[in-house]
Structures are given as C-alpha cells and as structure tokens.
Amino acid sequence: MSTAQPVQPGQWLRANRGLALWFVAAAIALVQGVRVANAQASLATLIVVLALTGALVHPLDVSRTRRRGGIAARAAGAFALIAIGLAFDTLRKIGIEAVGSIAFDLGVWIIVLVSALVERGTLGRLLRLAGVEHTKLIRSRLYQIGLLAAVLVTLLAGMTHEPLEGETGWSVAATTLGTGTWAAELFLLVLGATTIAGELGQGTLKMILPHAYKRSEWIAAKAIVLLLSAATFTIVITLVSIGHAAMTTGLGDVVKEGIPGFPGEEIPDEVFQTASVMRDHLQECVLSGLYALAATALLGLFFSSLFDSVVPALSAAFLLFLGLKSADVLLGLSRDVQEYIYASYPGQLRSWTAKLGQGLNETWDAAWFEAGVIRAALTGAVAWLFAIAWFSRRDLHG
Amino acid sequence: MSGPVLEVRGLEKHYGTVHALRGIDLSIDEGAIYGFLGPNGAGKTTTIRIIAGLIQATAGSVALGGIDLREDRIRAATGLRTLVEVPSFYPAMSGRTNLKLFARLAKADPKDVDRLLDAVGLTHAADRAVGGYSLGMRQRLGIAQALVGKPRLVVLDEPMNGLDPAAMHEMRRLIREERDQRGVTFFLSSHLLHDVELLCDEVGIIHEGRMVAEGRLKTLLSQAISGFRITTVNNEAAATALRADRMDLKPRLDPDGALLIDGDETTLPYLHRTLVDAGTPAIEIIPLRESLERYFLDKTEGVMG
Predict the structure, then answer these.
(1) 3-state secondary structure chain A
(2) Rounded mean pLDDT of chain B?
(3) What is the DSSP letter of B180?
(4) How far is CA B62 from the centre of its chain?
(5) By three-state DSSP, how is residue B111 classified?
(6) pLDDT attached to residue B130
C-alpha cells in the first residue's frame, strides 16, 4: 500500500480544478433552479439535476484516490451543495431574491462546459457510457413492456372514464395522466432497482467495470439514462392523455352555464377558467410528475447499488416506495410530515386540475408545484449521491 | 521491450479474519504470456479481481504500464481487457451486438467486431441471441471481447473452460497470434497445466495467498530435478547396495537396465559416495527434469488445482 501523503489545500485544488469548477457550477445551478422553479422554467431546474450530478460524478468516487482528506473534502463538498440550495430556498421564502438575469444563466452554462472540458475526457467518457447504457435499455424487454403498458393503461383509463357532470377535457387529461404516471412510476422503480443489481446478478458487471471508466461515471451514465426514460414515459403518457381528451371532450375554456332567473331570460355562460390557465396547470402537473418519476427511478438506483441481486433490491425499493406513496395509511404520518415527501405533490396538483376543469371552486396553490419539484430534485440528487458513495467502495463478487 | 506491463507489489486481501492474499509480488513484461497457477482457493481469482478493479486490495499496489491503478484508474486501465470467471453477456442481444457494446466501451473500430467473430469461429452464430449460446460459445465470445480494440494487457481467468480440444487449440493459436502480431501481453490463470506448458513463457504459482514460485517456465523446469538415470559398472549390484542403504533411495531399473532414482540436486553427492563405497561407481548420471504438473504439485504440497 502506498503511504498516504498529507495533501495541501492548494495542491488539492490544482489537481482537481475541474472538480472545483464543477462544484461552483453546480452550486450556482442549484440556486438558479430553486430561484426559477416557481416560474415553471423546467430547463433551468433540469440544470440543477444535471450540474449537481455532474459534480457528483467525482466527489465520492474513491476509485481515483484513497487520500483520506480527499474523501472527506469531497463528501463535505457534495453535502454543502445541498445545504446551499436549502439555505437559499429559506432566504427566498423570507423575501430576499437572488440576482436573476440572462448573464446568470449563461454563466452557469459556461462554467459547466468549461469544467467539463477541464476535467479531461470526462464528458466524452460519460457520453460514451450513456450511449452504451441507452442501447442496453431500449433493447431490454422490461423497458419496451413498460412503455407499452404505460400507454395502454393511460388509454384504457381514458376510454373507461365515466364523465362527471360539467367535466372538461382538462379533468379527463389530469385523471388519465395520473393513472399513466402511476404505471410509469412502477416500471421506473423496477428499472432503477434492477439497473445495477440485475447486472451484478447476471454477471455482466464484471465484464463492464474493468474498462477504463470510473465507477461514478458509470453510475452517472445509468442515472442519465433513467432520467431520459422518465422523460420518455412522461412525454408518451402526456401525449396519449391530452390526445385522448382533445379528441373526446375537447380542451377549451372551462365555462359555467348561465342559469336564467325566469323563463326567456338569457344569461351568458361564464368563463370559469380559460384554456390558457388550464394548460398552465396541466403543464405543472406534467412537470411535477416528471420530477417525481426521476426521483423514484434514482431511489431505485440507490437500492440497486446496495444489493448483489435483483430480489432484495426490488423488495427494498418497493417497500420504500409504498411507504412514500401511502405514508399516511402505512406509517400513520401526519400531513405536515408528508409535505416533506416528493411523491404526494403531483397527485395533489392533478387533483386540483381535475376539479378546476370540472368547474368546481378550488384554490390553486402555485407553491405546491415549486415545493414538489424541489423535493423531488433533492431526493433524486441525494439518492444518486449515496449510490455513488456506496457503489464506489463496494467489493463486487458477483 | 519497455518496462513491465503489469507490476503487483505486496498485494494483500483480507476478508475479516481470512487472509486471501498475503503479499503477492509479480511482474509481467510486454509481450509475455504469463500463466498464473494455483490450487482452488489459492487466491488466483482474488488477484485477478483486484487487477480488474472489481475489489479493492487491503494493502499493496497494482501498476499497469507503470501507472498505479488507484492513483489514476483511467490512464492505468486503458488497454486493459479482462475475462473474469464465466463470461456473461446480455442474453437478449446477439453476439454481434454484445461485442459492439464492448467495442464502444473500448473505443474500438466497429470493424474489429467482425474480425474477432471470425477469429473465434462465431461468425455463423453472430446474429443469434447470446441466451441460446452454449458455454463454449460464450467462452469464445468472452475471449473475443477481451481482444477488441487495442489491448495492451489481456487478463483471462480460465480461458479454456468449456472449450472442446479443437477450440482449445484454436484459442492457443489466437493468443500466440495476438502476442506475435499485435504485441499483446497475456496474463492467464488456468487449471490446465498442459495448456500452460504449451502456451506460456512465464509462470507464477500461488498457494494459500502467497507466490511460491515465479519465473520463466523453461528456467523453472530446468532447475527442477526430479531424479536421476544412472549407469554404473554393475547396475544390479548398485541397486542392491542402494536398497540396503539407510537412506532407502528406492532404486528401480528401467527397461534398458539403467538405475532410476528419485531425488534432487541435494541427493546427488550422497548418491555418488554410496555408489563409490559399494564398488559400483557411476559411469553416467543424467538428471531427470520435472514436468510442470510435478513441479506444481511439489510447490503446492500436492494440492491439485
């Protein structure tokens, strides 16, 4: 064993300048994501996940170095990122807004790109691995069946839906979207939970890992492909549910019929919600659903990194998923506690959209979208971080 | 010939109180075919898994092309290809698609895939799902994936498992060809001592987590004397004298009437004196060299691999 040498901070920074830059980029992106989340800026919030995970490609991977100080610094840096995000969220809530401008967004992208280029070859290796993982995924029967099942479930939910009085296409779309997302969430959980444990079980891991990549890069590639899958499932389900609603009930303004006070009187219909407002609500339902799907897949990935075979990984992931989904019934958690769980937000948003689309009086709370997205992003990022931390240390005997 | 392609120093691996490796040292020069031998449980696969980066050593270092694997895995493992134990592939994909995946990982030219499928005799089955392959076919595909691109060091764990004699012959030819034409270095573990004897230039023998012998195969076997073929002025009388000797040298006569005696270089002076004392001095003494199997058994205290 080579003797561990004390590492000076300056020396560490010089050796890891790409990593340091990436940390800065991720921190800025995280702040930016939190800042703009309530403006439905999905692209910017996606940067949170991509940049944060980009940073996490390196920090906890000990396959590169075993310097004690290095590992502690990397772990501390990763957790600091999350702390920055949470602290900023708190500041924003009490009224202190961050500087927001196009330059800010550009700055994030420039730093992400520069840091990726500085850390020589990382981007290329990551893209190559993601390409390989994507090929494996789209050729897997589980993925193909899952996608087909999600489409069928969404379509069947629409076809068998009993129209309620005053219901519009927005309500139907929100309802079928919920059913489709439920099916997609199950499949993404399975895809996530089997992604590493499955390879370990079938023995392909020992064929892949000896190649010249870091384990953290491999996990990152898996995670990117899971995020892409979440996006694919979301797009397909959304298209089916909206397409079905548009073709059957229509997606116009939500109107309340004017009820005449006496015979012959003409009372014009009242526009209760414009189509534009309903479209915005549905868009938030779709986005929050996407984030929840991504978080669920990454939770699956975390459990997959813990076990040597599929059965325990799947069992553990399902137990947690059930706990998250039915925390009130199964665990008796109060509503206050449940507000910390990402999984409950998309359902609530869809429920509001369905009621508003039905012409019912319901208050739309915009903060719920923001809170749901942030909780899902943080859950996913933490799950990813722990997956890297654990997996890069593991001895693999499968 | 540059420095060692693989250099292992003081490698240790502990699983709780079990010490699977107790300080392994080995070094392989470029272009060598190195045979790694040892009985079951000796630590061969553990060593290979550490080189492949699947498990971490408790102590010691592994350097590939002079770069420590732990210090810079990306640079060190570039050009490293492995086949650890039974090869596994994605069963729903064809052999060709599987190989293309590994070619992408290795940044290899996709044309290399067809060359290797042909080299391992799998062209006819290349587009069939790997799930339907026999063990021998998987083994051949495993060897092909280990040779894809521009490998510098290929680590093969029991590469001849599941192969029929003709396929084993083909694989030996392929390995030699890759070494001679592309300068690839091979590190292979095997239970098949005959194969190792036919294929390898160097061997290392591991037993109970320790390296008990290492060096060029020819040198090791030439150093290892298992006995002597002796012709004396009177072989019958010499045999009688040796049987009566307190050292009980157990002489036998071969079909030509020469004496056959077990022993090594330390036995020779005593043997010589005994024959002279018996009045039957030796006219000719020919040392008998060991086979690899005999040498292996000696070094591993008779534990078969």
Answers:
(1) CCCCCCCCHHHHHHHCHHHHHHHHHHHHHHHHHHHHHHHCCHHHHHHHHHHHHHHHCCCCCCCCCCCHHHHHHHHHHHHHHHHHHHHHHHHHHCCCCCCCCHHHHHHHHHHHHHHHHHCCCHHHHHHHHHHHHHHHHHCCHHHHHHHHHHHHHHHHHHHCCCCCCCCCHHHHHHHHHHHHHHHHHHHHHHHHHHCCHHHHHHCCHHHHCCCCCCHHHHHHHHHHHHHHHHHHHHHHHHHHHHHHHHHHCCCCCEEECCCCCCCCCCCCCEEEECHHHHHHHHHHHHHHHHHHHHHHHHHHHHHHHHCCCHHHHHHHHHHHHHHHHCHHHHHCCCHHHHCCCHHHHHHHHHHHHHHHHCCCCCCCCHHHHHHHHHHHHHHHHHHHHHHHHHHCCCCCCC
(2) 88
(3) H
(4) 19
(5) helix
(6) 94
| Residue contacts between A and B (CB atoms, under 8 Å) | 105
Q: In this predicted structure, what is the pLDDT of residue A294?
A: 93
* Residues B112, B122 contacting (CB under 8 angstroms): no
Residues of A with CB under 8 A from a CB of B: 1-2, 63-66, 121, 125, 128-129, 131-132, 135-136, 139-141, 202-204, 206-214, 393, 395-397
CA-CA distance, A272 to A348, in Å (whole number)? 20
Nearest CB among A1, A129, A214 relative to B59 is that of A1
Contact at CB, B54 and A125, closer than 8 angstroms: no
Q: Are A188 and A229 in contact (CB under 8 A)?
A: yes
pLDDT for A10 equals: 63
For residue A3, what are its two tokens? Answer: 């003797």
Does the CB of B107 have a partner CB in chain A at under 8 Å? yes
Instruction: Quote the pTM value.
Output: 0.77
Contact: A207, B54; criterion CB under 8 Å: no
Q: Going from the N-terminus, what domains does chain B have, and what CATH number goes with each?
A: 4-221 (3.40.50.300), 225-289 (3.30.70.100)
Q: What are the chain A neighbours of B71 within 8 Å (beta carbons)?
A: 2, 64-65
Mean pLDDT of B105-129: 93
Sorted by sequence, the CB contacts under 8 Å of residue A101 that are 6+ apart come out as none
Model confidence band, residue B216 (pLDDT cutoffs 50, 70, 90):
confident
How far A81 CA lies from chain B's nearest CA (Å)?
Answer: 26
Of the candidates B73, B87, B145, which has its C-beta nearest A214's C-beta?
A: B73
Nearest Cα residue to B120 out of B70, B156, B74: B156
Q: Quick one: DSSP state of residue B38? A: -
pLDDT band of residue B304 (cuts 50, 70, 90) is very low
Distances (CA, A) of A244 to A158, A165, B146: 7, 18, 51
Select the residue from B90, B104, B141 to test the A interface by mutation, using most A Cβ atoms within 10 A.
Answer: B90
Among B105, B143, B145, B155, most A C-beta atoms within 10 A, so best to mutate, is B105
**CB-based contact A214 B74, cutoff 8 Å:** yes
Task: Mark yes or no for CB contact B52/A210 under 8 Å.
Answer: yes
Helix (H) or strand (E) holding B297: helix B292-299
Q: What is the pLDDT of residue A147?
A: 94
> What is the block-wise mean pLDDT of chain A (398 residues), using blocks of 10 residues?
50 60 60 50 47 48 44 50 51 45 47 52 83 92 92 92 83 93 93 94 92 89 92 95 90 77 72 86 91 94 92 89 77 75 89 88 83 84 85 82
d(CA A221, CA A207): 16
ipTM over 0.85: no
What integer pLDDT is reported at residue A145 of this predicted model?
92
Task: Tell me which residues of chain B, numbers 62 to 91, contact chain A at a CB-CB cutoff of 8 Å.
Answer: 68, 70-91
